[in-house]
Amino acid sequence: MITVKINSVDCSSSIIWPSLSVEQNLTSQVDNASFQVRKYGTRLLTPEVSDLIEIYDGADLVFSGQIINITEDIESNAGALLFTVQCVDHTYELDGILVAETYENMTVKQIIDDIVANYAPTFTAVNVNSTYLISKIVFNQISISQCLKRLADLLKYEWYVDEVKDIHFFTKFTNVAPYNLTDTSGNFIYDSLSRKVDGTQIANQVKVRGGLGTETSLFTDVTTVKGNNTLSFKLPYKYKGLVIRVDTGSGYVGKQVGIEFIDKFVSEGGTADVLYNYQDDSIRFPSVFADGNKIEFSGYRKYPVMAVASDSASIDLYGLREKLIKDNSIEDNTIARKRATAELQVYKDEISDGRFDTYTKGLRAGMVIQLDSTLRNVTTDFLIKKLKMKPIDPSTFMYSIELITTRKYTLIDLLQKLLQTEDYKIDEHEVAEIIKTDLAEVTIEELIEVVHAVADVVAITIVENIQKDPIGAHVEPIWVLADYFPTGPTDPKRTGRLDLSFELY
Q: N or C: which end of the chain has fewer CB within 10 A?
């Protein structure tokens, strides 16, 4: 019996069964489900975003998650609403929680347990199996799912969240299916099984060209100056930690080495006696040397990194097919050989994928299932890439399975890493930033005091001094033909006006 619950309430009778679909994807990829609900008459079920969805196949919980998208349509003149519902599993919740933590000298299990306890308490980590010790790792405002991905990438592990919100963390290709496929097993629809073999990507000799490696032994050589007009000298190699000494006849004297185009000579206000041009493999002095002077140079020589890996059995079967990988970040032949060997294991044989349908329960995306067929002359381990469930009636699911070989999955994983931009680089000095919002209620009180008008009474005494004829009775002032301000009452000078005070003779 197929059961659909919304917020723990059985709503199976409201589901349009042909619309129900559940899709499981590889491990940490998000699983999804979809279905339709018709609302009319007494059927009043109205799904809402974030509702909890649980889908059972009999007693087995095959999907659990939440609604993230609802499309609402009106059905012609029937007066009914049709809801198309899209759901995702609980990995979606882990994508929305950011972690800011630094972990040192802790196992992967301890780190995941701490993240779950502090950031996702509704989840569990019962199926996390790793005692690998991490010396230091910093999660600086990244989602829980990204934290798990980084830990999984470090160990080459896989992880996913199951239907009861428990985190599974395990070694790749160790989650084995409960049954395998044979010509007579009867656990799949026989004529639904198909397989495609692809040999277009075969490469049985892989060459890796890296950057420049550095020798571990110190190399020293001497060049003798010819002539007396040379400032620059070519070096036979690029060097790390270049040391220059010069002998002009009185023994070798060490010189301060600077970098061309960055440092300056002492004569130019800098600190360098000689400038090293790493790109041109040359050194330059501020002045010429005499014929016969000697220049000693020593350092750790740089060498081009190159490695080749080949598979003779594949070459005999398919002929020679070469592949060149250029990666300047590889600066060691040992690493280059490992890269070449790893690429060879992925590309040396053909890859295949397949599909089949079954009514037999127990499979899950990410499981390894073996196809052992005498008729097809093949015994191969496949990885369940995708599992899709569709009901053939309200009681029975049909499971459609997509398969890829484990080598093809490794190839896809490798190509995805090459296409993805690395958004995080380990910095030993980085500190996890914890960003919090401090919410507080602030109460502001305002006191307004009304001040009434107050009468201010002041006694003012005014004394009047009136002087009559201060310059003398019937004495005419001395008229001044300009602006003038008397120095006092007895000052006889006054400003005259032609139209009033003056008389012209």
A: C
Q: Write out pLDDT tens, residues 108-135.
A: 999 999 999 999 999 999 999 888 999 8
Torsion angle, CA of 6/9/12/16, rounded to 10 degrees?
Answer: -30
Q: Could you give the CA distance from residue 152 to residue 137 in angstroms, rounded to a whole number?
A: 13
**Residue 89, burial from CB neighbour count under 10 angstroms (0-12, 13-18, 19+):** buried
Q: Say if residues 397 and 57 touch (Cβ distance below 8 Å).
A: yes
* pTM of this prediction exceeds 0.90: no
For the stretch 322-357, pLDDT in tens is 999 999 989 999 989 988 988 888 788 888 889 999
Assess if residue 484 is contained within a domain: no
Q: Which contiguous run of DSSP H or E holds residue 152?
A: helix 144-155
Separation of alpha carbons 371 and 403, rounded Å: 10
Do 234 and 281 lie in one domain? The reply is yes
Task: Give the end of a domain, one of 419, 446, 479.
Answer: 419
Domain membership flag for residue 489: no
Q: Which domain holds residue 44?
A: 2-88
Cβ partners under 8 Å of residue 291, min gap 6:
225, 226, 227, 228
105 in any annotated domain: yes
- Enumerate the H helices of 320-393 as residue ranges: 333-347
CATH of the domain at 158: 3.55.50.10
